């Protein structure tokens, strides 16, 4: 299970902070603590915690105010600690973006289980994002986040139009796509594209692939229809 940073515990109860930090340390979870939320944002910037354990009832700035501040800048998972029976705090906390909550007093073992569950959810979300930030077809990788084509260990930069067109072709590998379908996928609906403009951009893509013999014929002309990206 990945944990990119420490577990940040924000609570005005020193005994609780020490207890939780010691318990999590026994399970190889590094921790950092704060006695209030006054420096929470600055601390998150510097430490990049993997999970924040945040008490609601604190003097000065309470946990809900701190959560508002956190959510302006960070998506870090937050587990709220609330007084037993304070349903309002739990509801407001969830509405403000808390990921989970626990009522005090609590068993540190349950907190550990909640932390692990949150980290599993985060890791699963990252894996899903990774899956949709790249298209793999025919031994090529189209990096959607950076809009480059990864090929034979190198990268080929793409103009915006060629990128959108290749995204449509690779996203439907081994399927013939008509020029109309490609225009719908690669151009905004308000953009007046002509059939033959597709041909020009396909020609540019073929020129980019030509230096790579194994991939030079990935884009095939389907006579009477349009084009197809040939996968493995």
From TrEMBL:
Chain positions with 4-aspartylphosphate modification: 55
Keywords in alphabetical order: DNA-binding, Phosphoprotein, Transcription, Transcription regulation, Two-component regulatory system
Q: Name one GO biological process term.
A: regulation of DNA-templated transcription
Enumerate the GO terms in the molecular function aspect.
phosphorelay response regulator activity; transcription cis-regulatory region binding
**Which GO CC terms are listed, alphabetically?**
cytosol; protein-DNA complex
Query: Where in the numbering of this chain does the Response regulatory domain appear?
Result: 6-119
Name all OmpR/PhoB-type domain ranges: 132-231
Q: Which Gene3D superfamilies match?
A: 3.40.50.2300, 6.10.250.690, Winged helix-like DNA-binding domain superfamily/Winged helix DNA-binding domain (1.10.10.10)
Entry annotated with the keyword DNA-binding: yes
Regions recorded as binding DNA:
132-231
Tell me which Pfam families the record gives: Response_reg, Trans_reg_C
Record flagged with keyword Phosphoprotein: yes
Q: What is this protein called?
A: Two component transcriptional regulator, winged helix family
The organism named in the record is Pseudodesulfovibrio mercurii
């Amino acid at each position: 299970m990945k944990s990119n940073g420490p577990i940040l515990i924000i609570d005005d109860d020193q005994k609780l902070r020490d207890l939780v930090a010691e318990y999590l340390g026994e399970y190889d979870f590094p921790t950092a603590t704060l006695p209030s939320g006054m420096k929470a944002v600055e601390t998150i910037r510097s430490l990049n915690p993997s999970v924040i354990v945040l008490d609601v009832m604190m003097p000065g700035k309470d946990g809900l105010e701190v959560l508002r501040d956190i959510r302006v800048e960070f998506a870090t998972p937050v587990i709220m600690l609330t007084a037993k029976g304070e349903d309002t705090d739990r509801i407001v906390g969830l509405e403000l973006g808390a990921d989970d909550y626990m009522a005090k007093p609590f068993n540190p073992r349950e907190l550990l289980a909640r932390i692990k569950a949150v980290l599993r959810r985060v890791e699963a979300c990252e894996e899903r994002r990774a899956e949709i930030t790249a298209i793999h077809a025919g031994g090529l990788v189209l990096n959607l986040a950076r809009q480059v084509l990864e090929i034979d260990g190198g990268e080929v930069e793409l103009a915006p139009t060629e990128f959108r067109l290749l995204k449509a072709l690779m996203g439907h590998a081994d399927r013939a796509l008509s020029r109309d379908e490609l225009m719908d996928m690669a151009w905004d609906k308000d953009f007046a594209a002509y059939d033959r403009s597709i041909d020009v951009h396909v020609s540019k893509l073929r020129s980019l692939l030509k230096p790579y013999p194994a991939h030079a014929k990935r884009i095939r002309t389907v006579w009477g229809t349009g084009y197809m990206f040939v996968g493995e």
